[in-house]
Design brief:
This protein is of the alpha+beta class and 174 residues long. The chain has one domain: Alpha-Beta Complex (Peptide Deformylase). It has three helices and seven strands, in the order αβββββββαα. The chain is globular and about 45 Å long. The two termini are 27 Å apart. The chain binds nickel (II) ion (NI). Nickel (II) ion binds next to α2. The site of nickel (II) ion has 5 residues, from α2.
């Protein structure tokens, strides 16, 4: 497993629509392994392939708080079948929007159809944190970031901050 570089806003690569996976083969499984390793190292609880520069419809999530017992979940070509009208709010962050957090409201439950690590079709009813996390990651597949739900002013302030951070980071690396 390899830890890959996570792209951050503002990077136009993050804004593209990811393509469906045709076959869950060893190449896709290696991608999922790398995504998981990258996510654990960050650390984060969810990651979409586009965030490490692979615009394919693949998501990994692990909500386990116990570091000894990991509970990775893999979602290939996820589709939301139904979602609740009732919303839930969380203070969201994103590995591609480092150190920025904001309250986002999303449907509290959703039913998702996807292919698992073996390529088998699965249906999962999700609720609360997992439902929010899946919806956040699925947004990445459409090129959407959580800051897109904020007011124009708040969003532009965050992007400005991130652009500045990036410049500083480049200086140090060079
Ligand atoms: Ni994210």
């Amino acid at each position: 497993m390899t830890i890959r570089k996570i792209l951050t806003e503002p990077d136009p690569f993050l804004r593209q629509k990811s393509k469906p996976v045709e076959l869950v083969d060893d190449e896709i499984r290696t991608l999922m392994d790398d995504m998981l390793e990258t996510m654990y190292a960050a650390p984060g609880i969810g990651l979409a392939a586009v965030q490490i520069g692979v615009p394919k419809r693949v998501i990994v999530i692990d909500l386990s708080k116990d570091k000894e017992k990991k509970e990775p979940m893999y979602f290939v070509n996820p589709e939301i079948m139904t979602k609740s009208e009732e919303n839930a709010s969380y203070e969201e962050g994103c590995l591609s929007v480092p150190n920025q957090f904001a309250e986002v409201s999303r449907p509290d439950t959703c039913k998702v159809k996807y292919l698992d690590y073996e390529g088998k079709e699965k249906i999962l009813e999700t609720k609360g944190l997992l439902a929010t996390c899946i919806q956040h990651e699925m947004d990445h597949l459409e090129g959407i970031l959580f800051i897109d739900y904020l007011s124009k002013l708040k969003k532009s302030m965050i992007i400005k901050k991130l652009s500045k951070q990036k410049k500083n980071l480049e200086r140090i690396v060079v």
